Amino acid sequence: MKSPTKTIIAAAVIIFGFSAIFVLSNHLERVKPEVPEGFADRDLALQGKNLKGFSFGLEGAIADWYWMQSLQYIGKKVVDSKDDLNLENLKPLNPRLLYPYLDNATDLDPNFLAVYEYGAVVLPAIDAAEAIKIAEKGIANNPNKWRLYQQLGYIYWRLENYEKAAEVYAEGAAIENAPTFLKMMSAKMKSEGGSREVAREIYLRMSEETDDDRIKENAALRLLEIDSLDERDAIRAALQNFNEKNGRCASSWQEIFPLLRSVKLASGKDFRVDKNTDLIDPTGAPYVLDKQNCYVLLDPERTKLPLK
Predict the structure, then answer these.
(1) What's residue 17's pLDDT?
(2) According to the 3-state scheme, what is the secondary structure of the chain?
(3) Which residue has the higher pLDDT, 31 or 151?
(4) pLDDT tens for residues 190-212?
(5) Is-contact 168 188, C-beta < 8 A?
(6) Which of 30, 191, 260, 269 is the most interior residue, by most CB within 10 Å?
(7) pTM of the model
(8) pLDDT tens across 11-56, in order?
(9) What are the CA-CA distances from residue 132 to residues 106, 107, 137, 165, 182 (Å)?
(10) How high does pLDDT run on average in the chain?
C-alpha cells in the first residue's frame, strides 16, 4: 500500500511540473523570434493520453485546461485575422491545433460533452474528417447520449450527405428517452435534407439546447441568415413582377410594398422597415436596391450576415 505522504508528494510534484511548464511556455511565447506564418502553431508539448493514470485524479482539471486553451486559441486566431471571415470556412485561419486540443481534453475526460459539441459545430468549417472523428469518439465514449448523435447528424447534413445523416439521426432516435425530433429529422433528411426548413429546424434546436454561448450565437446568426434568404427571394420576385408590369425597375422600396403585403414568409415574420421606410435585413442593415438590374443585395458594410 502506498504511503499517503508519498502520494501527496507525487501529486505536488506533478502540479508543480505543470505550473512550471505553463510559466515556461508563457516566457517562451514572449521571447520567441518571429517565424513565418505557416510555422506559427507549434505542436502540443503535452499529450493528454500520456497523462492518464499519472495525474492522481487531476485528469478533469487538466482536461479543463486543454478546453480553455482551445477556446483561447481559436479566439486569438479570429481576433488576429485581417480578412473577412466566412463561418462556413475557417480554413484561412489555419487553426491546425484546434483538433489536438479537443482530442487531448477528451482523452483525459471521455465524458466531456461540451468539447464534443464544440468540435461538431466548429470543426466542419475547418476539417470535416476531424469533425466526424471527434463526434464519433464522443459516441464511442458515451453511447447513450442522444445529443452526440444529433451533432454527428449535423456534420453529415452540412456535408450534404443526407443519407448518412438520416442513418445517424435514426440511431440517436433509438436511444431511450431520445426526443421525437431525431426520428423526424431522420425522415426529413431522406426527402428534403437540403431545404431551408430543415436548416431552420436544426439551428433552432441547436440554439435551444446548447449551454455554450458561442454556439448559441452562431445558431442565432444562421437563423437570421435563413430568414434573410426567404426575404430576398420574395423581394426579388416582387421586383421582377414590378418590372414586368411597368417596363422598368422599381426606383424605391415603396413602389413594391403593395406587392409584398400579401407575401407570407416561411418564418411567420413580417418584413422590416427602418425610420426611412427602407427595407432592412434581420440584423437591422438596409437592403440595397439595385435599380439597374431589379435586384436586392445585402449591404456589405453594415450587415452582420454572411455575404453570399
Answers:
(1) 42
(2) CCCHHHHHHHHHHHHHHHHHHHHHHHHHHHHCCCCCHHHCCCCCCCCHHHHCCCCCCCHHHHHHHHHHHHHHHHHHHHHHCCCCCECCECHHHCCCCHHHHHHHHHHHCCCCHHHHHHHHHHHHHCCHHHHHHHHHHHHHHCCCCHHHHHHHHHHHHHCCCHHHHHHHHHHHHCCCCCCHHHHHHHHHHHHHCCCHHHHHHHHHHHHHHCCCHHHHHHHHHHHHHHHHHHHHHHHHHHHHHHHHHHCCCCCCHHHHHHHHCCCCCCCCCCCEECCCCCEECCCCCECEEECCCCEEECCCCCCCCCCC
(3) 151
(4) 899 999 999 999 999 999 989 88
(5) no
(6) 260
(7) 0.76
(8) 443 444 445 444 444 544 454 444 344 445 555 545 556 555 544 4
(9) 14, 16, 8, 12, 18
(10) 85
Q: Which three cell numbers stand for residue 138?
A: 464522443
CA dihedral 218→223→225→231, nearest 10 degrees, is -170
